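Case study B.
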Amino acid sequence: EIVLTQSPGTLSLSPGERATLSCRASQSVSSSYLAWYQQKPGQAPRLLIYGASSRATGIPDRFSGSGSGTDFTLTISRLEPEDFAVYYCQQYGSSPPGLTFGGGTKVEIK
Amino acid sequence: QVQLVESGGGVVQPGRSLRLSCAASGFTFSSYGMHWVRQAPGKGLEWVAVIWYDGSNKYYADSVKGRFTISRDNSKNTLYLQMNSLRAEDTAVYYCARTQTKYDILTGLDYWGQGTLVTVSS
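Model:
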């Protein structure tokens, strides 16, 4: 079973700053099968990135994903007030089929 | 527009059963795989189960295997989660979510319901 470890646990930044979130897998993950989500308090998660680097429909281009193998990154180029939230990485495995989520990174206002 | 609306949550005693429903609208339900994902209070996301678009295959997290059953009725555009032998650690908000791509479950989850809270307590 693949374990996803996200770091840091909390990121304290100011609006306008750049955020870099890390997701490390315990074994190699196909880039096609890595996604990122944003979740705000009291809301369901929202898909941001799929296939490691493709933005989902309606996601602003300040969000970008990169990485391969065991190391993946979500970058928010310039934080907007609405971007302060918790972010989860997720991989979808095929053997057996199922999903694994990372523990999350909270991006908070400094 | 795509909508997923969960129902059926509530307070239940340990060892009892509960069935959750997820009513889908705004898309061709029978073409998409569906997942249940849960979130314990103040915790992260945990995948629970997946069902193929036609119901032909189902897979579960080890934590619920043998106790939970995912199913769907494509004629009613509804997804279900039958939860038996409930434990305190099953307390969570349960979300249903749609796979992003038709006929494929190895994708992101692009639409989520608002969630329904299940509390297991005596």
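The mean pLDDT of chain A is 95. The remaining cases will be described in the next quarterly update.
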